């Protein structure tokens, strides 16, 4: 029997994770018997979730909030709550308060329970912990040189995760997630949001803004792959990690031009005409400092499975969004 806590459960990845847990009811072969879901707004559990659920709305970084989340000693904690990259860069104080201070409060709340309580903590880190100058590809053990406040906050949390694990206070694993593409729903404040937008909006018959050049490349993974990484991290034998508790996840290196070519191949050239190029030097500067290609052999050797290709990523989004081939091949009006 497993009690699961998910912070950031109302976000895209949190919802996908909860839906996956609800559908299977198992985590590493053990039955999930209770869930605690937390976010700024009360997370809505799926109708298929046939177990006790506690849904908590509020800022987990506020004093006392973390203690409430871990009061019933969840066995597995998926820590997904964070201020996204663009927002963390624009609002420095908010980014540090939630991304860094909130994470430390969560870890300290676990520590304060004592009595041998040592949950598995899966921390959603980011590729933004790396920054130029970088080798190509970037090995998993490359030193951390973040060039944004968001990347700095995630790097600090990685060190906290490793130290608290070393002390036996938690059993932590940090996974550096690729940019998740194609994200469902509406655009968010992430600087990387356009990587999803130039596929998602045209498939929905809407205009998409492209703020960077077509040769801009990035490391991406589908929502299905990212959810799979989280699930696998929750059940992995962490003794195989040694002292290196943080892993770069496998992904696909893809350029904006390759995304657009794939969209045209699947949905026809009419859809690509909905992409409007509108250069944004702020976004371009942030993205230019991000790493673009990785050697994720260590994660793959530990069983993390990447997407096979970008066309599979797009078709998975269409399937999950209920977009059929006939719909996308029908020319848009206007």
Give your account of this protein's structure.
This protein is an alpha/beta fold. It contains 13 helices and 15 strands. Strands 1, 2, 3, 4, 5, 6, 8 and 12 form an 8-stranded mixed beta sheet that branches. A 3-stranded mixed beta sheet has the order 9-11-13. A two-stranded parallel ribbon has the order 7-15. A hairpin with a 2-residue loop joins β2 (26-27) and β3. Mean pLDDT is 92; it is low at 330-334.
Task: Report mean pLDDT, rounded to a whole number.
Answer: 92
The SSE order reads EHEEEHEHHEEHEEHEEHEEHHEHEHHH
Principal-axes geometry comes out as globular
> How helix-rich are the residues, as a percent range?
25-40%
* Content of β-strand: 15-25%
Give the strand tally: 15
Radius of gyration: 20 Å
The low-confidence runs, each spanning 5 or more residues with pLDDT under 50, are 330-334
The main sheet comes to: 8 strands, mixed
- Secondary-structure-based class equals alpha/beta
- Determine the N-to-C terminus distance: 55 Å
Count of helical regions = 13
Give a brief description.
The chain has 334 residues and is α/β, with parallel strands linked by helices. Helix content is 40%, strand content 19%. The chain has helices at 12-24, 65-69, 85-90, 92-113, 149-166, 194-203, 223-235, 256-267, 269-272, 281-288, 297-301, 310-321, 325-328, and strands at residues 2-7, 26-27, 30-39, 53-57, 76-79, 120-126, 138-139, 171-177, 179-180, 208-210, 217-221, 246-248, 252-255, 275-277, 294-295.
């Amino acid at each position: 029997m497993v009690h699961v806590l998910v912070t950031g459960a109302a976000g895209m990845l949190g919802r996908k994770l909860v839906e996956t847990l609800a559908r299977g009811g198992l985590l590493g072969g053990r039955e999930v018997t209770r869930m605690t879901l937390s976010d700024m707004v009360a997370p809505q559990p799926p109708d298929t979730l046939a177990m006790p659920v506690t849904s908590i709305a509020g800022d987990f970084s506020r004093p006392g909030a973390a203690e409430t989340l871990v009061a019933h000693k969840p066995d597995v904690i998926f820590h997904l709550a964070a201020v996204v990259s663009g927002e963390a860069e624009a609002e420095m104080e908010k980014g540090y308060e939630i991304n860094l201070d909130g994470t430390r409060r969560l870890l300290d709340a676990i520590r304060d329970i004592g009595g041998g309580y040592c949950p598995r903590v899966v921390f959603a880190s980011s590729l933004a912990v790396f920054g130029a100058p970088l080798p190509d590809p970037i090995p998993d053990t490359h030193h951390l040189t973040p060039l944004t406040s968001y990347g700095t906050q995630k790097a600090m949390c990685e060190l906290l995760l490793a130290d608290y694990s070393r002390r036996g206070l938690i059993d932590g694993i940090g996974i550096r997630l690729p940019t998740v593409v194609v994200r469902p729903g509406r655009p968010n404040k992430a600087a990387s949001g356009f990587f999803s937008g130039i596929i998602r909006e045209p498939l929905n018959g809407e205009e998409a803004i492209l703020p960077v050049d077509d040769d801009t490349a990035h490391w991406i993974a589908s929502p299905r792959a990212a959810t799979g990484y989280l699930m696998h991290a929750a059940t992995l034998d962490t003794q195989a990690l040694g002292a290196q508790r943080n892993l770069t996840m496998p992904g696909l290196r893809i350029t904006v031009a390759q995304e657009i070519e794939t969209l045209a191949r699947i949905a026809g050239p009419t859809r690509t005409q909905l992409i409007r190029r509108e250069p944004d030097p702020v976004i371009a500067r942030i993205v230019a400092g991000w790493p673009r290609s990785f050697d994720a052999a260590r994660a793959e050797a530990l069983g993390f499975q990447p997407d096979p290709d970008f066309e599979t990523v797009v078709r998975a989004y269409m399937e999950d969004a209920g977009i059929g081939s006939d719909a996308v091949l029908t020319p848009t009006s206007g």
